[in-house]
Structures are given as C-alpha cells and as structure tokens.
C-alpha cells in the first residue's frame, strides 16, 4: 500500500552512502596522492599547496555540486504524512 | 579592560535570542499537542531552519575554540582532518532520511527512544538508552557550559562565577519557556552568525597576513611540515586521519541530538533544501575556522594556549565592532549546542522515563508542568556542576560523542533498514559498543593507529548481525514496512 514511498526512501539512503564513498575517495586521493612528497617541492594553486587546494577546497565544492545534482535529479518530493484515503 | 564595542554586538545578540524565546512560548501555550510542540516544535521546521539547527547543534565549542587552536599547532593537516566533517551535513539526513520521518510520524515518536521502543519492544533498551543519553549528554552540557563561561570571562573580564550565571540565565530562560521551537529558531540565528563570523574572520586574517602566498611562505620557513597533510610532527598518518570519518562524519547518525532533528522537519522539500544548505554551512565553518587557526600562526605567532588563538586573532585583525560580531559566533556555537542537549535530556526524562515507567496515564496538564520543571531542574543542576566540575564529569564528556555513537548507531540504522534486526542484537551491540569504547580508551587508545571509536563501531556492527541472526524471531512490523 505504501510501498512506493519506502522504495524512494531506500533508494535515497543508498545515494547518501554513494556520495560519502565519492567524498572520501576525492578527499583521500588528492590529499595523499599529491601531498606525500617533500613539502618543499609542492606545487601551489592560488597560493595553497596543490594537495590542499584539490582535496579540501575544490573537493568540497565538487561535493556540494554533486549533492545539488542529486537533489535535482534523484530526490523525490513525497508526502511524509499518513494518507487517510486508504483504499 | 572591557571593550564596549565588542560587548554591544554580543548584548544585541542576546536580546534577539530572548525575543525568540518569548515568541516561541506563545506557540507552546496555544498548541493543542503540548508534547509534540515542546519537544519537536510541532514537526514544522522548514529547510533553512533544519539546516541551521543541524549545523549549529553539531558545531560546538570545539569547532570555534578548540579546533582552531589545534590547527594553529598542527598546520594544514588538521584542516584536512576537519574536512572529514563534511558528511555530517548530508549523510545523516540522507540515510535516516524520509524513512525515519515517515515511520516516526506513523508511530507518533517524539524521541529517538520512542522509535527504538516501538521497533524493538524492549524495556531494557529504553533504560539503557535513557541512561546513556542522560549521563553522556549531561556531561557534555556541563563541558559546553564551562566553555561558554570561560569565553564570557575572557571577553568581559568578569569572574568565572558571574560569567557562568550570565551565560546560564541567557540560555535557560528561552529553552524553558520556548521548548524545541525556541531552540530551533535561535539555532537559525546562531547558525547564521556562525557562518558570517567565520567568513569575516577568514577574510580579515588573510588580509592581515598579507595574502595567502605570504602566509604559506612564512609557514614553510618555520616548518615545512605545517603545509603537509601529516601535521607539524608528521604524526597524522593517513589511517588515523581516515578513521576520523567514522567519529565525526558517519557516526553522527547515532547521536540522539542529530537523529531527533531528522524527525522534526515539515516535508520532503525542507529535507532537500536542508541537505544542500547544511552541507554548505558545515563546509564553510569547518574549513574556515580551522584554516584561520593555521593562518593565525603566521599572523600572530607565539600563542601558547590553543584555546586562546581564536579570540586573540579576532581582536588582533578586526576592528572592535566587527570583532564583537565575530566573537558572537563561538558564543552562538556553544549556546546552540547546549540548548539542543538540554531539551533532549528533558524529553528523555519526561517522555521516556516518566511517561513510560512512572505515570503512563498522565494528563496533558501534568505533562506540561513536569516538562517545565524537569527542564528547569536539569538546567540548574548543570549550572551547579559547572561551578566546580567534578573529575568524573570531565572524564565522561570525553566519551560523550564516541560513547553515544557506539551505543546508538547500529540500533538506529539496522532498526530502520534491516528486517531481521531484533532486540537481542540491539542490546548486545549497545553493551559491546559502550564497554569496548571505554575499555579501549582506558587501556590502549589509538589502537592499531586508529581513532578509539573505530573498533567499537566495527565490533558492535558484527555483534548486532550475529546475535540477531542466531536469535531470529521478529514479529511483523507493519509500521516499518517489514
């Protein structure tokens, strides 16, 4: 009877898990991928060490864009209240 | 010396907060369901308010005072670690999400424990949960209270006791009379101040430091490790930093003060907006405040006590009036955490203990009276403890975050999504999680190079599954769609 709402809710929870995995990968990959060398030989982007710029700044903006897209594309506007009109 | 220009914005801020409390009290008095109104604000939060109250409840003294202090001594590696908190903005709301909201409306849950009670049908779970909420959150309230009083003490030059009383009076009045609605609405104001304060201070610090490049050069000249992800001493290993994702990012689902917010919003649209706004807000604050801490090392070198970094930098780089606005931010962060905890502990006592075990047939009038009384008494008790915090409370506060997460995370997540989860699994995972957390912290902190919370969360996960499967007997739960 209320199947559909829970299906939507379950799908959205999984999207949440997916986003965290992406978030972690971006954060970890850039930080330790670019930041593991000698600090004296870092490349700099806009004044920040490249690892920091990509992991903490660009990565955060990227996540916010992903979340915005997820809201627009996947999250559905469903009723949370009990429906009275039981068939 | 008292800086009046700094204090005036703070006073204005307090007046606004008071006004909100009085307005919310009108709603409480005219509402036809007192409990739902007083403890959940009538489930009417819109997107912006939900985002701000999540963010403000989560962001506490440590984000504005403690964190920047550590970043000052550790460097950019600590900002990296702090960014593990970004998921706190979206993950909890997405995972608890609509299912939690639908189910809690259906079973008319007002507290997290209501939800667990209906799902697992066990008095032991109610008592165990109520006990951990009251003990841990009472302790963290006391700690935040002490932090708030110390901050007022530094800013105004009053002595600790008067500072504490001012702080307590300003929080208690609006929470007691206004309930959850006052908490959420003041959180919206406080959250906004937190974001604006962070942005102003970050800009001010960069300008005072002569630009990012200049600041970075200074840091590299002092110690190149300050700009590496491994911290000034090189002891922030990738594994250790990564396990912080569990404590401050993912495990947040298990914090009752966060979970209760996920049942109090109005509709799906509010949830969507809150996820986006909340993530932007948390991202801004965590990134900004911790980066300020690092930059401060170049701008105001030689600060010895970490907790003083933020106030000193603010007074140093900003003109007094702006400094007043920015210093309202940590005040707001502390108040917004304390008020959430106070109303939560009060709801636990009234709804989960009094109504469940002591007087199930209480009338609306009795509940009303009890709620006001309980909130006031808990609030005053915290003040008394904060005057001279006992060793035990300080110790418990250190466990509050991880302890609650170890206790609640899996009971909530499995309870919501796994049909076979049963009370035996929940009880054993709670007990195992809590005991292991305290044991590891006492005996072998940072075991295997991971944060203390990692193993308890992992072990209680498997305990839950194994015990549930071996004792499987769950009746059909229509409400949960099982």
Keywords:
heterodimer; A: mainly alpha; two-stranded antiparallel sheet; B: 482 residues; mainly alpha; Sodium/glucose cotransporter; globular
Write up this protein:
The complex is a heterodimer of chains A (87) and B (482). Chain A is mostly helical and 87 residues long. Chain A has one domain (3-73). Helices cover 66% and strands 5% of the residues of chain A. Chain A has a two-stranded antiparallel ribbon. The model of chain A has no long low-confidence stretch (mean pLDDT 89). Chain B contains 19 helices and no strands. Classes of the chains: A mainly alpha (87), B mainly alpha (482). At the A-B interface, helix 1, strand 2 and helix 2 of A face helix 5, helix 6, helix 10, helix 11 and helix 13 of B.
Q: Say how many strands of chain A there are.
A: 2
Bin the helical content of chain B.
over 70%
In total, how many beta strands of chain B?
Answer: 0
Query: In whole angstroms, how far apart are the ends of chain A?
Result: 9 Å
N-to-C CA distance of chain B: 64 Å
- What is the number of domains of chain A? 1
Provide the spatial order of strands within the biggest beta sheet of chain A.
Answer: 1-2
Cα Rg of chain B: 22 Å
Main sheet properties of chain B: none
């Amino acid at each position: 009877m209320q199947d559909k709402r829970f299906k939507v809710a379950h799908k959205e929870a999984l999207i949440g898990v997916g986003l965290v995995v992406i978030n972690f990968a971006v954060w970890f990959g850039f930080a330790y991928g670019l930041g593991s060398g000698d600090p004296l030989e870092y490349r700099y982007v806009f004044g920040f060490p490249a690892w920091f710029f990509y992991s903490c700044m660009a990565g955060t903006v990227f996540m916010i864009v992903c979340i915005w897209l997820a809201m627009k594309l996947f999250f559905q506007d469903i009723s949370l209240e009990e429906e009275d009109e039981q068939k | 010396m008292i800086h009046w220009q700094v204090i005036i914005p703070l006073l204005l801020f307090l007046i606004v907060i008071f006004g909100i409390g009085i307005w919310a009290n009108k709603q409480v008095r005219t509402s036809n369901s007192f409990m739902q109104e007083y403890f959940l604000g009538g489930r009417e939060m819109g997107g912006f308010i939900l985002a701000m109250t999540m963010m403000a409840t989560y962001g506490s003294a440590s984000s504005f005072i403690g964190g920047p202090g550590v970043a000052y001594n550790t460097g950019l590696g600590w900002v990296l670690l702090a960014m593990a908190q970004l998921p706190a903005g979206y993950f909890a709301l997405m995972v608890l999400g609509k299912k939690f909201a639908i189910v809690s409306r259906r079973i008319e849950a007002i507290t997290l424990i209501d939800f667990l009670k209906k799902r697992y049908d066990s008095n032991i779970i109610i008592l165990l949960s109520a006990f951990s909420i009251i003990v841990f959150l009472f302790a963290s309230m006391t700690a935040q209270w002490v932090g708030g009083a110390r901050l007022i003490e530094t800013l105004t030059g009053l002595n600790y006791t008067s500072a504490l009383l001012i702080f307590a009076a300003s929080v208690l009045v609006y929470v007691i009379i206004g309930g959850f609605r006052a908490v959420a609405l003041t959180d919206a104001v406080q959250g906004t101040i937190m974001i604006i304060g962070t942005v102003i201070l970050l800009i001010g610090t960069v300008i005072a430091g002569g630009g990012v490049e200049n600041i970075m050069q200074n840091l590299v000249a002092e110690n190149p490790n300050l700009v590496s992800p491994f911290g000034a001493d090189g002891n922030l290993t990738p594994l250790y930093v990564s396990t912080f994702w569990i404590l401050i990012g993912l495990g947040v689902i298990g914090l009752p003060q966060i979970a209760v917010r996920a049942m109090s919003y109005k509709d799906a649209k509010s949830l969507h907006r809150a996820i986006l706004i909340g993530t932007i807000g948390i991202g801004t604050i965590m990134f900004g405040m911790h980066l300020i801490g690092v930059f401060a090392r170049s701008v105001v070198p030689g600060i010895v006590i970490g907790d003083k970094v933020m106030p000193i930098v603010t007074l140093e780089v900003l003109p007094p009036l702006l400094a007043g606005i920015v210093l309202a931010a940590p005040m707001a962060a502390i108040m917004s955490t304390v008020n959430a905890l106070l109303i939560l502990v009060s709801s636990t006592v009234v709804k989960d203990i009094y109504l469940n075990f002591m007087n199930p047939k209480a009338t609306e009038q009795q509940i009303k009276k009890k709620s006001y009384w309980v909130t006031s008494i808990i609030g005053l008790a915290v003040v008394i403890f904060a005057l001279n915090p006992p060793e035990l409370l300080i110790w418990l506060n250190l466990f509050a975050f991880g302890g609650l997460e170890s206790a609640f995370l899996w009971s909530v997540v499995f309870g919501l999504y796994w049909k076979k989860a049963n009370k035996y699994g929940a009880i054993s995972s709670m007990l195992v999680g809590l005991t292991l957390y305290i044991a590891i912290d006492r005996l072998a902190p940072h075991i295997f190079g991971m944060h203390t919370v990692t193993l308890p969360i992992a072990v209680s996960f498997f305990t839950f599954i194994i015990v549930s499967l071996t004792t499987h007997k769950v009746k059909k739960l229509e409400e949960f769609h099982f």
